[in-house]
Amino acid sequence: MIKFGSGFKSVVHLGFHSGKQLSNVRVYPTVVDRILEAMALFFWILLAISTVYVGLHTSAPGVQSKAWIMGGMGMAVMALMAYTAYMPIHKYSFPFKITEQNVVAQFQLATRITRAMNVIVGGMLLCGVWLEAESLLGLPDGFFVVGMNVSATLMVVALLVYYFFAYRYR
Questions:
Q1: If DSSP codes are grouped into helix, strand and coil, which group holds residue 145?
Q2: pTM of the model
Q3: What angle do CA 100, 28, 95 make, to 5 degrees?
Q4: Virtual CA dihedral for 46, 47, 48, 53, nearest 10 degrees?
């Protein structure tokens, strides 16, 4: 039987261990984190400009609606992902048990992977908007498919690097 409203309530689910017992931990962003946030903001602005440009300069109605939907939803997703980097530790779940010795390192890694994922998702969404209108730029078909594949590969690599360092600092 499923009980609604009970169970594990993490927003960023990276594993099965909670940080609730050490809920007074606060990690401040470093220079690397600020650079990742600036890159995500840059992609967010590019996504907004690209969405408007593709939406207004494409005559095919199917391409217009896809660009508006992908751009609008993508901007909302990126804004929510940026917000998750500032959530308290009890909203995260971690791949390894959280102790007083590793809480800062694990929380720093978790917030950094959310910022890195925001940048990668921003690049993927930007390629997705332009994928619908490659002919506007005069590019060959499939140019932005390469960007999508690169973004997907970077996402997998980023998660592997996160889990490696989470294991190392467990």
A1: helix
A2: 0.84
A3: 45
A4: 90
